[in-house]
């Protein structure tokens, strides 16, 4: 019972992009190019499109993907199995959002990921940051907010790969996880959205995924 109540809490509702909106069209374009199998091409800014809008649509999409992927392994990611939020023995993350929690706190992985996903969802739902209406401009700080969101979402991938990959394999989700992560990495590389140092916990994997596409 306990794990059921917790996993539903961590599993955030999917963030939907309104049908008929320009962002919805962009998402459809992204899905179509992804279908072609060329991920390097799929992440490129479509001709004539606004960079902020492209980054916004993809950020929402990655949030939904990571949300789903983590949702499949929540029963294995518990206070007992993951008392700290880590990505292997060398990397540990402490949570702070700058508003409610200003000083970074040490917490379990499920707690950290719950904080993180709730925080991301609040940003995505904020119309002043992620405007969904045509013609509403993106704020000046949009890019720095998007970079922070993506940097934090990366940590969920890093935790899944380092601490739960055996569970992912047992669930036969590894192809799904790898494709999602590869798409994410190619995207952040294309627009230089995450500092290289932040990617260190999965550097070898990133190089391996990238080398297959050269």
Automatic annotation (TrEMBL):
GO terms for molecular function: kinase activity. InterPro entries: MOB_kinase_act_fam, MOB_kinase_act_sf. Zn(2+) binds at residues 77, 82, 159, 164. The keyword Metal-binding applies. Keywords: Kinase, Metal-binding, Transferase, Zinc. The keyword NADP does not apply. SMART domains: Mob1_phocein. Pfam families: Mob1_phocein. This is MOB1A kinase. It comes from Nothocercus julius.
């Amino acid at each position: 019972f306990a794990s059921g109540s917790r996993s539903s809490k961590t599993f955030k509702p999917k963030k939907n992009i309104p049908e008929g909106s320009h962002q919805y069209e962009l998402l459809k374009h992204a899905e179509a190019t992804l279908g072609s199998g060329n991920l390097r091409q799929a992440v490129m800014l479509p001709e004539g499109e606004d960079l902020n809008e492209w980054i916004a649509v993809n950020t929402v999409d990655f949030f939904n993907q990571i949300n789903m992927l983590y949702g499949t392994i929540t029963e294995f990611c518990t206070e007992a199995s993951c008392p700290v939020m880590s990505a292997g023995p060398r990397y540990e993350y402490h949570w702070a959002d700058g508003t409610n929690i200003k000083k970074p706190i040490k917490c379990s992985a499920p707690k950290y990921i719950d904080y993180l996903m709730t925080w991301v969802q609040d940003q995505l739902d904020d119309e002043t940051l992620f405007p969904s209406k045509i013609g509403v401009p993106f704020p000046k700080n949009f890019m720095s907010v998007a970079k922070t969101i993506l940097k934090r979402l990366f940590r969920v991938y890093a935790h899944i790969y380092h601490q739960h990959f055996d569970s992912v394999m047992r669930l036969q989700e590894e192809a799904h996880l790898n494709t999602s992560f590869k798409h994410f990495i190619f995207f952040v590389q294309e627009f230089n959205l995450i500092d290289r140092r932040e990617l260190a916990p999965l550097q070898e994997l990133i190089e391996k995924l990238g080398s297959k596409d050269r």
